């Protein structure tokens, strides 16, 4: 079998966060199963282009994984070579796996797949959430869905990454075939990380010396309004009044909110307690997730939220907003599922200390449900289903 994976961006375009890494990991796992996967993507990486990638042909990036980064003339909007080249990519494949919805790569992939009679699987990755629809260009998005996606909707096998996404898909396209296959992580790669003293961590990432650091709280994601880091900062501002040696680190590239967040930090008098540390690589992420006392994600919406799984895989308890699908963390004794308001998140920061969450429970929950060995099998059942 040969799968054509169409995505507007692909690893190493880490600007786009967890979904890019997740798609890369899934591709490698599929390849390890002996199935060829040809990725048709672009060289976009935020507002810049990836350097050092092959834009002329597919090149082998892992076992049975071949990637072509079509060059965009206008970043995130247009690639002549993609429009003409992806037809051949689809023609030579058995299954076409498309990610996201509001992108020209999706439009041409759907049209060519329909024309060639190919099996189509789409993972919207949050494209149909109420927040996404209403946030920007709402009318344009609704027209795009009605005119360009709906005609193909019943020919598509829809992959939802969570029960929330399944609900969103059925809200716009009732009676279509939707199956839940979550994102996953490589559980083993998050194990055996060294423990480091809090002051050493801060010296490494901030180049600052602190006389005393009681704990480090951590959050991560692109600095965009949807991630609601403002809620977390407000909540931490309350928490730090009674825990004045606590520090909050927030990692992620700027996607329009960095200036606002820094102004909020300064306004609340938290410039010595809350720090925006920018983009980090995998090893740094693993190090911070292992050595923080709690990871918090206050997003207004997440179709999955890969970094939550990564934190739990490191044995770190989490505080997650009720706008995510992670409601089972409380049942599995590894975190708090809180209303996405600053008062509730602040209350959770105080309460998490009393819960005595165990590292073994956090890790067990992820290993048994979201390890790639499990998720890949579920995905292959989906794409090979007649």
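^ Assign residues to that structure.
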């Amino acid at each position: 079998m040969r799968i054509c994976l169409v995505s507007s961006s692909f690893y190493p375009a880490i600007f786009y966060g967890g979904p890019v890494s997740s798609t890369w990991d899934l591709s490698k796992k599929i390849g390890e199963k002996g199935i060829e996967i040809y990725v048709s993507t672009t060289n976009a990486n935020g507002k810049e282009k990836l350097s050092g990638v092959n834009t002329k042909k597919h090149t082998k990036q892992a076992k049975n994984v071949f990637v072509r980064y079509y060059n965009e003339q206008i970043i995130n909007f247009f690639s002549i070579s993609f429009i003409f080249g992806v037809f051949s990519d689809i023609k030579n494949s058995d299954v076409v796996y498309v990610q996201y919805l509001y992108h020209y790569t999706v439009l041409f992939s759907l049209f060519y797949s329909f024309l060639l009679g190919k099996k189509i699987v789409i993972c919207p990755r949050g494209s149909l959430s109420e927040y996404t629809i209403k946030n920007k260009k709402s009318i344009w998005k609704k027209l795009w869905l009605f005119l360009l996606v709906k005609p193909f909707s019943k020919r598509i096998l829809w992959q939802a990454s969570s029960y929330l996404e399944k609900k969103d898909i059925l809200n716009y396209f009732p009676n279509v075939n939707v199956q839940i296959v979550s994102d996953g992580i490589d559980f083993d790669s998050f194990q055996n990380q060294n423990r480091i003293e809090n002051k050493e961590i801060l010296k490494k990432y901030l180049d600052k010396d602190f006389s005393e650091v009681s704990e480090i709280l951590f959050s991560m994601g692109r600095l965009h309004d949807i991630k609601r880091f403002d809620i977390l900062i407000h909540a931490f501002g309350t928490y730090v009044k009674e825990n004045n040696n606590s520090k909050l680190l927030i990692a992620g590239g700027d996607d329009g909110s960095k200036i606002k967040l820094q102004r909020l930090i300064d306004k609340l008098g938290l410039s010595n307690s809350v720090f925006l540390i920018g983009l980090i690589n995998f090893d740094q992420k693993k190090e911070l997730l292992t050595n923080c006392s709690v990871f918090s994600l206050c997003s207004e919406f997440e179709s999955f939220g890969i970094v939550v799984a990564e934190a739990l895989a490191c044995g770190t308890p989490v505080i997650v907003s009720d706008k995510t699908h992670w409601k089972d963390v409380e049942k599995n004794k590894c975190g708090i599922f809180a209303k996405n308001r600053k008062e509730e998140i602040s209350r959770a920061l105080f309460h998490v200390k009393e819960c005595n969450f165990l590292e073994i429970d956090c890790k067990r929950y992820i290993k048994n449900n979201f390890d790639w060995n499990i998720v890949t099998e579920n995905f292959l059942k989906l794409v090979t289903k007649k």
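The chain has a mean pLDDT of 94.
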